[in-house]
């Protein structure tokens, strides 16, 4: 028996739940030759009335040492080893299964009432999750979109498990509030969050494609309060900052005047603010910004409101988003991944994709865009995932919830 890590993805578009489970189970077992160590399950909301039947049927046909997953408005998976499909409108079931020798797998479910206090010590978080920080685990997390403490959960994971990678998404679909759309160890849950902690001979490498491109120059925040920016200084180049602060709205108006007609029109409805996460990186590239909504402006005072807290000395930059920009952003991040990875590092052999419901065909007017671009750059591999109501991934070493984003988790053995 091979002791190498192996991943397999299988998607079925059979309209019958039983037939879909049979189809993916046969393909998984034929590929792995035995029940998987880890099973990840993503099922489209077209099956929401049958979510309660999914777990017992799946346990009988495809038992695994550990399993987790959720429902989504659409799913992503392999129709065959050569073809990945993003199924957005039709009934579909996708599973990602793996043999993971020398990998410790721990699953968990957290109720919204069970989250510890962020002001306390990390030990209550460790007890709630159940994974040993000494093993340096990484996390896959799937959550109820109504979990208002989601930011607290992600901060708690970063707090209790420093250096960990956490990726995942919020369940989606028209009927998510009426259905038990979270799954862990063949149990279904309606609320909270489920997750998998993975440690040992495996690495998760994240790619967070927020679909935006910067315009203008970075601005240094010189006066702010919570999420309100009152004054900025323009960064002329990486060594020079303008002496005289100004209102950010004034800087924005000047910037818009310099844009092309196309970008000026785009700025009317698709303007965002990027927050630089690394205070020491001199040259900022795609992936260095956390993209947040521009919530409003004060025409009289010139202040702007951003959908996140700001601190003095932080760099911000205005961004635009559209289909072409989203494609360019993902290409740039994939090229950066290939450029920066050591040549002796093993190649990724499986990937998860957590894409916003606002991407897919609705954004690109083309099917399977993000998943095909991934394989164009990184080669054929099993890919699975779902369309999310919020995507989970790290920027600058801190985990956030994103929107209009595709988050990829690349799996490879340790070097």
UniProtKB/TrEMBL annotation:
Membrane-spanning segments: none
Keywords: Cell membrane, Membrane, Transmembrane, Transmembrane helix
Cell location: Cell membrane
Record domain FIST: where: 35-236
Lipid bilayer topology: Multi-pass membrane protein
InterPro entries listed in its UniProt record: FIST_C, FIST_domain_N, UCP018953
Domain FIST C-domain positions: 248-395
Top-level taxonomic group: Bacteria
Transmembrane helix is among the record's keywords: yes
One Pfam family from the record: FIST_C
PANTHER family per UniProt: F-BOX ONLY PROTEIN 22
Descriptive protein name: FIST N-terminal domain-containing protein
Organism: Limnothrix redekei LRLZ20PSL1
Lineage of the organism: Bacteria, Bacillati, Cyanobacteriota, Cyanophyceae, Pseudanabaenales
């Amino acid at each position: 028996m091979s002791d190498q890590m192996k991943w397999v993805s299988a998607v079925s578009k059979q309209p019958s739940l039983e037939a879909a489970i049979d189809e993916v189970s046969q393909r998984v077992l034929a590929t792995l030759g035995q029940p998987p160590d880890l099973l990840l399950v993503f099922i489209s909301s077209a099956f929401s009335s049958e979510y309660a039947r999914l777990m017992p049927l799946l346990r009988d046909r495809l038992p695994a040492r550990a399993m987790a997953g959720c429902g989504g408005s659409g799913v992503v998976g392999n129709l065959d080893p050569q073809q990945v499909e993003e199924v957005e409108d039709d009934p579909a079931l996708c599973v990602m299964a793996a043999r993971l020798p020398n990998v410790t797998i721990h699953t968990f479910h957290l109720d919204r009432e069970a989250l510890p206090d962020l002001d306390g010590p990390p030990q209550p978080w460790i007890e709630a999750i159940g994974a040993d920080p000494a093993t340096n685990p990484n996390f896959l997390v799937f959550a109820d979109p109504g979990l208002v403490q989601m930011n607290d959960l992600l901060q708690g994971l970063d707090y209790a498990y420093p250096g960990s990678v956490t990726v995942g998404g919020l369940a989606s679909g028209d009927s998510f509030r009426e259905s038990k759309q979270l799954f862990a160890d063949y149990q279904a849950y309606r609320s909270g969050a489920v997750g998998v902690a993975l440690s040992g001979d495996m690495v998760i490498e994240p790619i967070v494609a927020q679909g935006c491109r910067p315009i203008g120059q970075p601005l240094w925040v010189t006066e702010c309060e919570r999420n309100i920016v009152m004054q900025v200084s323009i960064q002329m180049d990486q060594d020079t900052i303008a002496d005289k602060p100004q209102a950010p709205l004034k800087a924005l108006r000047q910037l818009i005047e310099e844009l092309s007609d196309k970008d000026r029109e785009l700025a009317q409805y698709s303007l965002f603010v990027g927050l630089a996460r690394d205070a020491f990186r001199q040259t900022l590239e795609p992936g260095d910004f956390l993209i947040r909504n521009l919530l409003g402006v004060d025409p009289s005072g010139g202040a702007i409101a951003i959908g996140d807290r700001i601190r003095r000395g932080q760099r911000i930059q205005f961004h635009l988003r559209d289909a072409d920009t989203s494609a360019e952003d993902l290409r740039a991040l994939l090229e950066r991944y290939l450029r920066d990875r050591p040549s002796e590092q093993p190649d990724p052999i499986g990937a998860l994709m957590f894409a916003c419901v606002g991407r897919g065909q609705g954004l690109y007017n083309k099917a399977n865009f993000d998943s095909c671009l991934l394989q164009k750059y990184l080669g054929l591999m099993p890919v699975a995932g779902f369309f999310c109501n919020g995507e989970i991934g790290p920027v600058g070493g801190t985990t956030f919830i994103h929107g209009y984003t595709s988050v990829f988790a690349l799996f490879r053995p340790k070097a």
